[in-house]
Amino acid sequence: MTRSSQLLEQWNRGIADMLAHLGEEDFGPTLLRSVTRLIHFDFLMVFAYRGTGRPIALGDTLPNPQREVVINAYCAAPYVLDPFFQKVAAGVQAGCYRLRDIAPDRFRQSEYFRTHYSLTGIREEVGFYFPLGDATGVLSLARWEASPALGRSDMDLLDALAPAISGLAARQWANVAAPASLVRPRHRDAAQVNAAYTEFGAKQLSDRERQIVSLILQGHSTGSVAHLLDISAGTVKVHRKNIYRKLGLSTQAELFAAFLSFVG
User: Fold this and answer.
1) Are the C-beta atoms of residues 158 and 96 closer than 8 Å to each other?
2) Distance between CA 131 and CA 170 in Å, rounded?
3) Torsion (CA) 173, 179, 180, 185 in degrees, nearest 10
4) Secondary structure element (H or E) that encloses residue 31, with its range
5) Buried b / exposed e along 206-238 (16+ C-beta atoms within 10 A)
6) Side-by-side strand order, sheet with 56-60
7) DSSP annotation of 202
8) CA 260 to CA 263: how far, in whole Å?
9) Burial classification of residue 178, based on how many CB atoms lie within 10 Å of its CB (0-12 exposed, 13-18 middle, 19 or more buried)
10) Which pLDDT score, from 0 to 100, does residue 198 have?
């Protein structure tokens, strides 16, 4: 039997298992087992996003100590700087994305990474997007630091599996309930997400300065900000200095803390 035949056989068994558990509480663990027959992942987590409201945790396979950091702390405020959330804000509702492929160039030097993501112990994370009525669902499969990095062939296979994973996830969580205060019309989502950035420092900063703040907070380097806004790196540095002065801050860590306090 060829490798492709073996993979297809394993995946067909996984599909059968997932269909058998669709609508049940153990669907998440079943999906994780089905995928790990082909590619190893350590855990699964699922979120629903509506506007700028806090994500709704739909399920996970984490033990309680890890859940507190990976799920609860994330939902408290840092989610607004998450690259996966940024794609939701941009209107993405389908597809499979690896975090390292969509993160800004200085993601690992960002305050979001330093104060939150690095504490989770996650090495690799792949998000599968799916529509949930007026919301967007993201199912993440992840590996801890002790596990190896994903290879290109792994991502090619996950891209092939993505339609089935996203489709089944959409069926599983189609009737997700959420507090009425979190429900917002879809056509306003992008505006509400942008408001979290544009309103931060609105009384002190210019429109261009607020643009730069949002990119800095997301993890873009000076060079990346300059490229995205079509200005020189020197101009970005001048703006950055003025931003800190106007907000009474000295470091990016203080900027990050002030932004999270504003969002919270």
Assistant:
1) yes
2) 6
3) -40
4) helix 27-36
5) eeebbbbbbbbbbbbbbebbbeebeeeeeebee
6) 56-60, 43-49, 135-144, 122-132, 95-98
7) T
8) 5
9) middle
10) 67
Tokens of 219: 């993890």
How buried is 146 (Cβ within 10 angstroms: 0-12 exposed, 13-18 middle, 19+ buried)? Answer: exposed
Task: Calculate what percentage of the chain has a pLDDT beyond 70.
Answer: 91
pLDDT tens-place string over residues 19-58: 999 999 999 999 999 999 999 999 999 999 987 678 999 9
Q: Residues, the chain, total?
A: 264
Which amino acid, residue 14? G
What is the three-class DSSP state of 129?
strand
Q: Which candidate, 76, 68, 78, places its Cα nearest to that of 116?
A: 78
**Which pTM value belongs to this model?**
0.81
**Residue 7 belongs to what H/E stretch?**
helix 3-21
Return the structure tokens found at 57: 């945790």
**For residues 214 and 27, what is the distance between their CA atoms, to the nearest angstrom?**
37
Q: Which two tokens stand for residue 175?
A: 């009737």
